[in-house]
UniProtKB/TrEMBL annotation:
It catalyses: Ca(2+)(in) + ATP + H2O = Ca(2+)(out) + ADP + phosphate + H(+). The chain crosses the membrane at residues 119-140, 353-379, 919-938, 1077-1098, 1110-1132. GO terms for molecular function: ATP binding; ATP hydrolysis activity; metal ion binding; P-type calcium transporter activity. This is Calcium-transporting ATPase. Residues 1160-1180 are annotated as: Disordered. Catalyzes the hydrolysis of ATP coupled with the transport of calcium. It is found in: Endomembrane system; Membrane. The lineage of its organism: Eukaryota, Cryptophyceae, Pyrenomonadales, Geminigeraceae, Guillardia. Residues 861-1131 form the Cation-transporting P-type ATPase C-terminal domain. Its EC number is 7.2.2.10.
Amino acid sequence: MAEGFKFSIEDLKKFVFLNINYRLGHDVKSKVLPKLEEMGGFEGVQKGLKTNMGDGIKESELQMRQQTYGKNYVEPPPLTPFWKFCWDALQDPTLQFLCFSAIVSLTVGLAIPEERVCYGYVDGVAILVAVAVVVLVGAIQESAKERQFRDLTDSASDELVNVIREGRQIRVSTREIVVGDCVVLSTGDIICADGLVFERNTLKIFEGALTGESNAISKGAYEFQEKGNFELPTDEDLRKFFPADTTMSLEEMKNVYEPTPHRTPLVFKGTQVQDGEGKMLVIAVGRNTYEQILLGDKGDDDAEDDESERSIMQRKLDEMTILITKLGVMFATKSCCAEVWDNNRDWMKIIHYIITGITIFVVAVPEGLPLAVTIALAFSVKKMMSDQNMVKHGSAVETMGSATTICSDKTGTLTTSMMTVMDCWIAGKPGKPEDMKGGLSTDLKELLCAAMTINTSEKTDLVAKTTRKKGSDGREVQEVVKLDGKTVVAYSGNATECALLKLVNFLFDYRGEVGALDMPYKKYRTEFPESMPGRSSITFSSKRKRMCTLVPMPAGSPQPFRLYCKGASEIVLGLCTTFASGSETKSLDESTRSDIMNAIDDFASQGLRTLAVAYKEFPQTPVTADGSLPDDVEQDLTLIAVLGIEDPLRDEVPSAIATCRSAGIVIRMVTGDNLSTAKAISRKANILTKEGEESGTEIAMTGEQFRQAVLFEQNTDHPEKFINQIEFDKIWPKLRVLARSTPTDKLVLVTGIQRSRLVIDAGNGNKQSRQVVAVTGDGTNDAPALKQADVGFAMFINGTQVAQQAADIVILDDNFQSIVAAVKWGRCVYDNICKFLQFQLTVNIVACVLATVGAATLTESPISVIQLLWVNLIMDSFASLALATEDPNKSPGLKEQLLNRFPYHRTAPILSKVMVKNMFAHAIWQLLILLALIFGVGDICQMGSDVNQCAGTPDLNLLFTLRSGRPPAFDNEWLASINPSIHNCIPLFSVSDNSSFINVTSLPIDYNDSGAPPFTGLIPLRDRGYCLKEEGGCGTKTQHMTMVFNTFVLLQVFNEINSRKIHNEFNVFKGILYNNMFLAVVIGTLGVQVILIQVPSINFGFGCAALEGWQWGVCLVLGFSSIPMNFLFHYIPYDWISLGKWAGELEDSVIDEQLNEKEEEAEKEEHAMHSGQPVHTVAN
């Protein structure tokens, strides 16, 4: 080992992992202690690290130790530059395709004079503008999210801690702590590194964020619970604490089993000293601490721009975009202008066909998709903040809509992470705290509250929850956390004692601010301070399982001294002979004892920890001469109450889980708590149901049993790489509770579910073959699973920064209901994008067919380039705003609809059968109307007083009194096909064809020049630009073609209303009045359309002619026809429609590729960490 140290980083890591993986007493004895003995015991660890707890290390060794074991600080990465977000956004295949289209369109539009005059370059400019909008909106959104999250979690603290170096206690920065340091700990300290505590101490460390344990853990050399002093689990649960393949009998298991030790030596960075003092030997710092190993390489610098980070929907859209744009266009050749090759004419003709093809191509490309996704995500991300969801990665929103399972932590996620009195036995009967508030006599309430307050440490307190943030001057400041304007309560000190203080406040109906001096329990502390003369106590110990405090009573009390006692209910009850009932005491007979024991058993069956509170009065002080209380002072006590305490479920959890069930989402609880507590909580939360347990479809397991069943190899650094998928698939569909789990157990569970190909019947005939896994958690131990999950949720108020950095979404109010809100928004985003997709693809089909038919029959598109620009604006910007911003919190019934259906399959096509039916039905109807307008309206005749009037009798009468706006060449050939004697096509000049010229004599050439000789000869009827004018150019502004354009736009506007529904709903108007953005877009579109057509100069620029009233009436009726037709389309059967890759279906290989990319990235991180290369991690 370098520099003479016996232990490497890896040696110390292995020891830490052994302690994490094996926490039960019998496992510690068989797995952990042999390793500790191999290291030479605690003395050997000190010698191996060249230090000792008395003198510490030498100052001169700091640099050497930092080089060998690393520094205790991980530099946060710099904020991503804005240009990088823009560049990442441009990696979208759709945007790249659009950029190519724009460049081609711009080149043709600017290079060819005829196209330049007709503004042929405008479409290219419009596409580039659309791309710029998408890129900038996406980049601004990502940049804002990164800064917002950095502000939320940035607390790269540089606090001072006490260490012993060279025999002296000094204060140094946490960043200067090194392996081998002896750190002095005291109440309230946040531990700054991983270490060992093995000397005598009074430390109690709260490790709930790391292990899920609700209680503070005593620290020191291993101290095991004595046989007979602990209860054995039930036979069923006991088997789950041993490997499934064990050969031990049940009796042998009972003899071997030991619960977690009273004391353990390992302490972890980020945990908190709840009580006591002691010294810690540092064994890991910086990125080598367990906290940072769990965090890995997912910090706030994550870029979701990587291909592996694109959501499932985005990948489906990529596939569809490529398929849509593979459009072949066929053009027919017109006989009128195809006699012989003419360079001056035919080259331009070919270029015109190319331009027409590009126009069709531009219409076919769904440039609105990226914008719709961006708008939908930006809208939902903003709205989700009001639902207490802070989104770090936008793709997580849509992915959450497809979630099929949620693996949740218990402590702090499903529960409040605050021990609370839930049940009680008092005054001879069981009850709830609510019953105690109004049902107790004043004397008994005062007695109980005094007993709960006086007999607790004054270090225990209810305080305001605070968080550390950096101020404008860069210094770290404490900020009080408020929720809905009220200060959030936090526990300081022993959690069980805090629960008692909380009950005191509740019984006195306190509604003021936490921490205020008028809190009820503080009245007792003021009257009976710890420094009070005559006060004495016996502290709690694991052997006694109780504590007591004697205080002098004020004048006028029945007796001058009173002893308060609290502890394990069976122990304290055994010391009682009477119980308090109102203002009197009653004898504790066998019947009453039996009732109390039944209540204790009932509390225990609910997963409650029971605690008895008692008292005894003395006529004189029992304190001995040395100031201590004798052991026999706790005799003949009077029982006040038996309290059932637990870390309770959050109020919203049962209803939220019920909602998840109806939404087709399975909740699986993964916790470090013991099996009985975990099962009790899961039953209350409706995670485990009575029917499921009885039928065997819902089971609970311990982490040990789970690992033994599903892993090829045990006790590895990366167990997720050794999953036996066959065995795993036998367990996970039934697994609902995983108790006594290690941090890696949740990672194994998430990874295995993601890899599974098992087809699960989710109910209602809904089959799921690929699972989308969400993970919720608040602790450091949740970080690996949060990173691996498809979507990771972390709590903000009670969550650790490690969890928040590893998550995709941070729940700001720690409310499980907010996770349901994320599901709601995820499904809403998915549906909103599908609504826009249904609308846009309908427009694409109609526009492409129209442009193709125009190119094939009319030699030009019936809708000009500048008009297509306006249509694209409707398709893209306006339709995105209208359809991608539906708010499920406002539209009646939408929230329930979203949460009462099963999630979309992971690989399912993005286009549903209903959407395909609607698209093609409306496209066909629109094409019938538009083709009827093009070919069934417009009389063929000579131009009269203006281009819209006929001169004389028309050659061909069609609908309405309106002159044709079709190209003359087409109308001439149409007439010729009807009556061959009519040939209006002007032939190419030929001396032998008398119809191709006029023979004139003495024709004046210039009326202004009287000296110019008159012209005599043949004048060709077809000039050089004849065919070009007929087949290209800017076109003539006619009311006929304006009606076509107007009807096309109005059909799309009214079809936007139809597109609001994608699940074959009959009433498309439901909720429309609650979407102000939709109403504004529709009204705004109609208003602008009127301006484009009716206002002079503007209509000229858009190739339109002002319409008359009756013409507007016809267009509105035809446009509105899509609404009643949609009611008819509702009855068209659609089950026969076959979907596939063309509809956005993903293959399993795409999902596997995504999972493999995650695993490869994790391996790169591991390799970088072991090779000493820098790993980008966020400072804690």
